[in-house]
Amino acid sequence: MLRQMLRQYPAAVIVGPRQCGKTTLAKSMGGLYFDLEQHRDRLRLELEWDQLCALPTRIILDEAQTWPEIFPRLRGAIDAQRKRKGRFLLLGSASIQLMRSVSESLAGRMAVLELTPFLAGELSASPMQDRLWLCGGFPDGGVQTPRSFPEWANNYVRLLVERDLPNLGLPCTPQTTMRLVRMLAALNGQQWNASEVGRSMGLTYQTMNSYLDFLEGIFLVRRLPAFHANLTKRLVKAPKILWRDSGVLHSLLGIENKKALMIHPAVGASWESFVIEQAIGLLNALGARFQAFHLRTSDGYEADLVLECAGERWVVEVKLTSDPGTRAFDRLDICGDLISATRRVLVSHVPKDAVSTTRVSCGLLRFLRELTALAKRGRPQE
Predict the structure, then answer these.
(1) What tens digit of pLDDT does each residue of 368-380 get?
(2) pTM of whole model > 0.90?
(3) Fewer CB within 10 A of the terminal residue: the chain, N end or C end?
C-alpha cells in the first residue's frame, strides 16, 4: 500500500502510535532520514534544504508534527516539481497535530497511511498469535519477547503521560492524566459519558472531551461512534470507548498473564475491543473505504460492530465463548433486520467455522479473511 502511494503522490505520511514500526517501514523504502525531534537534524534541513530537495533521493521526516515550520517548505518544494512522485515521506505519532498541518499546507499533495502495531494476520508463528491478545501488537511489547510484558507497556504509558502529552499541550498534570488513563482502562468497551467521568474527576464535560481528544490523537483509545439512521427504534447516540492496543490496556488493569486475563472481570470487554481493533486495523491496512459504528437501541438490543464497506453492511457480535448457542444469533438477527444488514457475523472461539452468504459463525482468523475479501470489493479503483 505504501509503495503504491509513493508512486501516485509527491509525498506520503505514515501516522500511528510510537514504537509501532513506522521508522522501520519508512527506512525500508530508502532515502535520507531526519528525526525532527533532534536539533541537529533540524539544523541540517534549515541550512541544506535547497540542496537536499534537488537530490533524486527520497527525504524521510520523522515526528514531523514537532516542527510545523517544515510544512510550508514542503508545499513549495512539491509545487515546484509537481510531477515528481514519492519525494517525501513523513512520519508522525500525534495524529491531530500532524493532520492539521497536512490539511492546511499539503491538501491534495499527500497520501495518508495509518500504521498499527502487529495484526493477527501478520504473525505467522502460532506462539505469537496466541500472545497477541494478552501482550498487544507492539513489536517490543511482548508479542515477540514474552518477558517484556507488562513492563514495556507500563514504561510506554509513562512516557506518553510524562513527556508526549505535555509536549502536545495537554493542560493537566501527569498525575491527573494517569488517573484519567486508568479510569478509561476500566471503561473499555463502555459508552462514553463525559459528564459522568468529569464529575468523578472534578472537571467539566467539555474538559473531559478535550482531554479525550488528546488521548485519541496519540492512538491510545478510539471513540467508536454510534450507528445512526431513521429507524422505528430509538438508538443510543453515545460513542463507545475502545483501547487501541490490548497489551497496554492489560498493563493498566494489572493483568500480567493469560490466567489472570481469563478470570478478570474485564476479559469480555477486552476480547471485544481486541477483535474490533483487529478488524478496523486490517481494513485500513488494505486501503478499503469503510465506516465503523456500534449499535445499541434504547430497549437493550446491541451489536458490537457495524461495518459499511463496498455497498455492504455487516453487523458483528463478539463473544468470548466456544459455544455461543442459537440465542446469540437470534439477537444478532434482530439487530441485522433492524438496520437491513447484508451479513450477520458472530465472532467467538468456536472450534469449527460455519459460513453462508448472509450469516457467519467463526473465529478471529476466519473473520479477518472474510474482511479481506470485503476490502478487495471496497478498495478504491485506481
Answers:
(1) 999 999 998 866 5
(2) yes
(3) C
